[in-house]
Write a structure and sequence with these properties.
This protein has about 475 residues and is α/β, with parallel strands linked by helices. The protein folds into three domains: about 280 residues, Aspartate Aminotransferase, domain 2 (3-Layer(aba) Sandwich); about 90 residues, Aspartate Aminotransferase, domain 1 (Alpha-Beta Complex); about 70 residues, Molybdopterin biosynthesis moea protein, domain 2. Helix content is about 40%, strand content about 15%. The strands form three sheets. Strands 1-7-6-5-4-2-3 form a seven-stranded mixed β-sheet, sandwiched between helices. Helix 3 runs parallel beside helix 4. The longest helix is centred in the first third of the chain and has 21 residues. It starts with a helix and ends with a helix. Bound molecules: pyridoxal-5'-phosphate (PLP).
Length: about 475
């Protein structure tokens, strides 16, 4: 497969032109990739008005992923998630005229979802999920979606789910699509962790299963630089005008949330990934997935508790093995192994074929060398019912102040405050914080958070100052 962006930039670097254009390093190697770090010079195309080498490369990506169209992002799935929601809001406006944009979402959203809802003044409702699942992994089903829609007076303008989620569980995208297609409701999927799924022996990417819009972080599971991502648009046979609308407005949507200086290093990285995916990647992935499965079986047999079904993720629930996830992470660090994420209850490893068999075996060996201890008890941390006092937008637009979590009880959550990873908000901006939130806030290491300075809050603080 051709790599038009890489070829153009290499040719430009070889010409050793005097660079009287941005960036300020002028192609001189400070870090080392600078000679290839260019701007929109003649012939280089422009990401948000692409019609040359960038569009050609995006079309290559679309043909590899089998989508109606695919667009590049150099600002991660975070940008793409915002763009997807904007597209769905625009489409709702076109179909129904003025009115609040309504989105129904599974609760384990990434925080960029909330930023988009603030920008678009979206009204959120949450899909019911499994009561005992952790916040990072709330599993909903086709039946629950159907039941929720049947009970809803006004149908949502979009449904948004995260699949695979951070710890590696996968939602029933085909089932959701079967429910939503006849209703003319677009299905938006945060597939930040699953770009590779299309290339499995049995393709299992959300776009293969009926998603209308999908955000993929190329950088999470493919050999791409951090920040590389895709916005995929699917062909909706029932409502082709909707797919066409998304395709025609995709660039505008991405531009709305993006910098006017997208990185050409990242664009080259995305371009090169096309050639990689077009090579023997499928075979390499299939062989690696088998090796990863063998490691998982071996750990299972040794008494570890595995979580999730995503092939390139290894998540262990560590408490039954007698350790917190953080303790397990420290033990592995001493073996020169760094995990993706660890909290009290779990440890997450992200695997790709680039780890190779050798690194997988090293991980297996290190884990097997950890002796099993008496099980630790999980702390009960259940998400309380959602009781918004303000819209997400109002909560973002009010001034806020940070208070320790204990003092936040009874107040209204301000702008989203959660660290990354895993960046799933424990309280939703605009929601009243209750005692019941505290165990979950502590579990995710939140010790202070912004509360909205409503008129009542201001009165309270000036009273205590007096
Ligand atoms: C589930 C999920 N969605 C979206 C994102 C955002 O992706 P990006 O880092 O590519 O912006 C993340 C980041 O970790 C994530 O875990």
């Amino acid at each position: 497969m051709k790599t038009p962006i890489v070829d153009f930039v290499r040719a430009y670097a070889e010409k050793e032109m005097l660079r009287f254009h941005m960036p300020g390093h002028k192609g001189k190697p400070f870090l080392s990739p600078e000679p290839y770090d260019i701007t929109e010079i003649q012939g280089a195309d422009a990401l948000y008005e692409a019609s040359g080498i960038i569009r050609e490369s995006e079309r290559n990506a679309a043909s590899l992923f089998g989508t109606l169209d695919t667009f590049y992002s150099t600002e991660g799935s975070s940008q793409v998630i915002r763009a997807m929601l904007y597209l769905a809001a625009l489409y709702a406006r076109k179909r129904k005229g003025a009115g609040r944009f309504r989105v129904l979402a599974a609760r384990n959203v990434h925080k960029s979802f909330l930023y988009a809802c603030a920008a678009l003044d979206a009204e959120i409702s949450w899909l019911p999920g499994d009561a005992d699942a952790s916040l990072l992994s709330i599993r909903t089903t086709k039946a629950k979606l159907l039941e929720t829609l049947e009970k809803t007076e006004i149908l949502p303008d979009a449904v948004f789910v995260t699949s695979p989620d951070y710890p590696g569980s996968i939602q029933d995208i085909r089932g959701f699509s079967e429910v939503l297609r006849p209703l003319h409701i677009p299905l938006l999927v945060d597939d930040a962790h699953g770009a590779y799924l299309h290339f499995l022996e049995t393709p299992a990417h959300p776009m293969d299963l009926g998603a209308d819009l999908c955000a993929d972080s190329a950088h999470k599971t493919l050999p791409a630089l951090t920040g590389c991502a895709y916005l995929h648009i699917g062909e909706n046979a029932a409502f082709p005008e909707m797919s066409r609308f998304f395709k025609e407005n995709a660039k505008q949507a991405l531009a709305f949330f993006g910098s006017t200086s997208p990185s050409y290093l990242l664009l080259q990285s995305l371009d090169l990934v096309n050639a990689y995916l077009d090579g023997p990647y499928r075979e390499k992935l299939a062989a690696f997935v088998k090796e990863a499965d063998a490691v998982k079986s071996c750990l299972d047999a040794a008494g570890f508790t595995l979580f999730g079904e995503e092939p390139l993720k290894l998540t262990l629930l560590t408490l039954p093995y007698g350790y917190t996830g953080e303790e397990m992470a420290e033990i592995l660090r001493a073996c020169k192994i760094e995990c993706e994420f660890a909290d009290r209850e779990c440890i997450v490893f992200m695997l790709t074929p680039e780890n190779g068999r050798g690194e997988l075996c090293a991980l297996e060996k290190a884990l097997l060398s950890v002796g099993k201890r008496a099980a630790l008890l999980p702390e009960k941390a259940v998400l309380p019912p959602y009781r918004p006092a303000l819209s997400v937008r109002e909560a973002f637009l009010l001034p806020s102040r940070r208070v320790p979590v204990e003092e936040a009880v009874g107040r209204i959550a301000g702008p989203v405050s959660v660290s990354c990873p895993p960046a799933v908000p424990v309280v939703i901006s605009g929601e009243v914080i209750t005692e019941a939130h505290l165990p979950l806030l502590r579990r995710y290491g939140v010790i202070a958070l912004p509360v909205a300075e409503t008129a009542a809050e201001e009165e309270k603080s000036s009273f205590s100052a007096d």
